[in-house]
Design goal:
The complex is a heterodimer of chains A (about 400) and B (about 325). Chain A has about 400 residues and is an alpha/beta fold. Chain A is built from 13 helices and 18 strands. The longest helix of chain A is centred in the C-terminal third of the chain and has 13 residues. Chain A is globular and about 60 Å long. The model of chain A has no long low-confidence stretch (mean pLDDT about 95). By secondary structure, chain B is α+β, with helices and mostly antiparallel strands. Helices cover about 45% and strands about 20% of the residues of chain B. Chain B has a 7-stranded antiparallel β-sheet. In chain B, strand 3 and strand 4 form a beta hairpin. Chain B is elongated and about 80 Å long. Chain B starts with a helix and ends in a 46-residue tail after the last helix. Classes of the chains: A alpha/beta (about 400), B alpha+beta (about 325). Chains A and B meet through strand 4, helix 2 and helix 12 of A and helix 9 of B.
Chain lengths: ~400, ~325
């Protein structure tokens, strides 16, 4: 089959690789009908995520059709149309029983790696380095899905791929980030990053009843979408405006009730702070550039909530722990517990209360994946969400 | 239960605390190291070496080593290893004096004095190292590997006690055959091909609680192991702990050797045991099914990959996806 392989820093190519096989009784093989390039794939593409290996198949947001089942899977049939959560969860361990599916204790065969870096193992994930198990990803023609009796969500209505595909990752991720904010009607939420996750976090905050939603980015096309399609009430372009000052003015000095970081470890910024972090990250003294989360902490109102959705890999520097402590902020974060939200969000989509397909900007052939990565990284042609099909 | 008791630290009696001698040597290392880094030429003159640029560089390098050793001693006052590093450093220092003596402008008398001083300190280092090593052995720090499994102690015990299924998660094993109720023959795969076998005996068997076993004479190594199954606090689960002593190459079984040789293997074994009991079998990824590092892409038909040998135990997922919103 053809698959998008990581070949080195800023080098991906579509290669001919062997077809996937059933390895475990609870596996399924899925023929991919639609997959995407995710913002977090760019961290792999740009070489910031450790333990990548040449030839790793990328892609963790995908849907398709069941073509083969292991003998332990009884709830799916060949031909079923399914969306697959990016994180792999067994459904049997204590973390799964607690609903913390992205902390699954059994889905990461190379768990000793994150154990060394992060203290304890994380769950397995598709196409996301060897820290998360070394599973082949879904930017391919076929993929093997472990614990297929628990993860995949069957789609029985006639919704389009574009409407349900993001149930795999960015929609539950964005929704969880908004849910973290304990939004009650009339609350104010500020969201750093108006990429696909940021847009859907805005839409989720609106769905949950936020009164004022402030989007922060530097690309006018993204801020335009935030206002016109996602439901933001205000936008801040940090290239022209001082974020802290504008947020203080918009909230009459209080600061937003909750802040969401939808940026992660490759945050962009200005001046000395940005240069400092960029140098340290290049020298591998710190893994992550935490500009967005620093700003979010400083901006948040006393006793407020900072929700971190952006992906971080390791250690950061100049973290404003003093502000966090002295002002009694709460941090909520995590890789999304996708399984927890899929059915509920599918309900919202089916009832027409939410349509995440507005973030789609490009449709491309799988063979053009390399071009897609480059475009998405450079934000060319107003790139937002790129869908690949073979 | 026993393993947990052994893990809990006991208040330390005064005699087993860090020795004054060891601490003093640590501070001495720090002071000497800083002097070597700061004023290498002056120091070279003082010990009678001709203060060339090469000598200064050598002293600076030695200073960094000395400083590192000193910090290690002060940070780990109860460990023998940093003190042994001091002994090794003394040998290097003496060798440097020897090299310095070959220079025609060297001051022989001063060099001899320096050598005598180093030899004196070396004697103290030896005393401190041997003492620390003895104290470390006497403290008998147990080596325990552990995992929590979402099954009752009885279920985990029953699975373990059958022995035939052990190769399922102990992936270096080819087979385990019970020859009678307490004796068994274990066969391991060798990395280079072929197998090696040994016999083991269960010496203490408490259903639902623990199993202790040891290798029988003529095994290629000596293993003294105990696995305990204890009810976990606040959850209907089992805390599994493996305590072991390992003897290799003719050395008596010790916790230290178990830590050196068995740690990664046993940790992996317990991870896989949890997978088998909770999910029905060992989970493989595209990378982990290979013995050596491999890209995350499906294996070629000719690749030799690990696969599950034993039947899958049906274990339908029980977590509720909608219950946590």
């Amino acid at each position: 089959m053809r698959a998008t392989c990581w070949m080195g820093k800023q080098k991906v190519s579509v290669e001919q690789v062997p077809d996937p096989q059933i390895l475990n009784a609870r596996d399924a093989i899925i023929k991919i009908t639609a997959t995407t390039i995710c913002g977090s794939d760019l961290h792999l593409y740009n070489g910031f995520m450790p333990t990548m290996q040449k030839g790793d198949i990328l892609g963790h947001e995908f849907m398709g059709e069941v073509v083969e089942l292991g003998k332990g899977v009884t709830n799916l049939k060949v031909g079923d149309r399914v969306v697959v959560p990016f994180c792999i969860a067994c459904g049997n361990c204590e973390s799964c029983k607690l609903g913390m599916f992205s902390c699954c204790e059994n889905s990461n065969p190379t768990g000793w790696m994150p154990e060394k870096l992060m203290g304890h193992a994380t769950c397995g994930a598709f196409g996301y380095s060897h820290l998360t198990g070394g599973f082949a990803g879904g930017q391919a023609e076929y993929v093997r899905v472990p614990f297929a009796d628990f993860g995949p969500l069957k789609i029985e209505s006639d919704l389009t791929d574009e409407q349900v595909l993001f149930l795999s990752d960015i929609l539950p991720t964005a929704f969880m980030g908004a849910e973290f904010c304990e939004i009650e009607p009339r609350k104010v939420v500020a969201i750093w990053g108006a990429g696909p996750v940021g847009q859907l976090a805005i839409a989720s905050a609106k769905l949950l009843g936020a009164e004022r939603i402030i989007a922060i980015d530097r690309f006018p096309y993204r801020l335009k979408m935030a206002i016109e399609q996602a439901g933001a009430t205000d936008v801040i372009n940090y290239e022209d405006q001082d974020v802290q000052e504008v947020l203080r003015d918009l909230t009459a000095g209080r600061g937003p009730d909750a802040c969401i970081d939808c940026v992660g470890l490759e945050a962009h910024g200005h001046g000395a702070q940005f240069a400092y972090d960029k140098v340290k990250q290049t020298l591998k003294i710190e893994q992550d550039r935490p500009m967005a989360v620093r700003e979010a902490i400083l901006a948040c109102r006393g006793g407020g909530i900072v929700s971190i959705l952006g992906v971080y890999a390791g250690f950061v520097d100049k973290f404003p722990l003093g502000s966090l402590m002295n002002r009694g902020l709460t941090i909520k974060t995590g890789q999304c517990h996708v399984h927890r939200y899929m059915k509920r969000l599918l309900g919202h989509i089916e009832r027409g209360e939410l349509d995440p397909s507005f973030v789609v900007s490009h449709h491309m052939n799988l063979d053009d994946a390399a071009k897609g990565y480059d475009m998405f990284m450079r934000k060319q042609d107003d790139a937002m969400k790129i869908i690949l099909r073979s | 239960m026993k393993s947990l008791d052994a893990l809990r630290s006991q208040p330390r009696s005064d005699s087993s605390g860090p020795s004054k001698l060891g601490r003093g040597l640590g501070w001495f290392s720090v002071a000497l190291g800083l002097t070597e880094i700061a004023t290498p030429k002056l120091l070279a003159k003082l010990v009678g070496a001709h203060p060339t640029r090469g000598a200064a560089l050598a002293l600076r390098v030695a200073g960094v080593r000395e400083l590192g050793t000193g910090i290690a001693i002060l940070m780990m006052p109860n460990r023998p290893l940093p003190l042994w590093l001091r002994v090794a450093g003394d040998a290097l220092d003496l060798a440097m004096i020897g090299v310095a003596a070959t220079h025609r402008k060297a001051n022989g008398l001063r060099l001899a004095g320096a050598a005598a001083a180093i030899a004196g300190v070396a004697a103290l280092d030896m005393i401190a190292s041997v003492r620390a090593a003895r104290a470390f052995e006497a403290a008998n720090h147990p080596v325990v590997f552990s995992v929590t499994i979402a099954k009752s102690p009885r279920e985990v015990y029953d699975f373990f006690r059958k022995l035939e299924r052990l190769p399922e998660f102990m992936d270096y094993l080819d087979s385990v055959k019970q020859t009678d109720t307490t004796h068994s023959t274990w066969t391991a795969k060798l990395p280079a091909g072929g197998t090696v076998s040994w016999n083991a005996e269960i010496v203490d068997d408490r259903p639902g609680e623990s199993i202790a076993w040891k290798t029988v004479a003529d095994a290629p190594f000596e293993l003294d192991g105990r696995v305990t199954f204890a009810q976990a606090p606040a959850r209907d689960m089992t805390e599994v702990r493996v305590e072991m002593k390992l003897g290799v190459l003719g050395r008596a079984p010790s916790s230290l050797l178990a830590k050196l040789f068995a740690k990664p293997q046993v940790k992996g074994d317990l991870r896989r045991l949890k997978q088998v009991l909770e999910t029905g079998e060992v989970l493989y990824s595209d990378a982990s099914q290979h013995v050596l590092p491999h890209a995350a892409q499906p294996a070629k038909p000719a690749d030799h990959v690990k696969t599950t040998q034993l039947p899958f135990i049906p274990t339908p997922p029980t977590a509720d996806k909608g219950a946590h919103q």
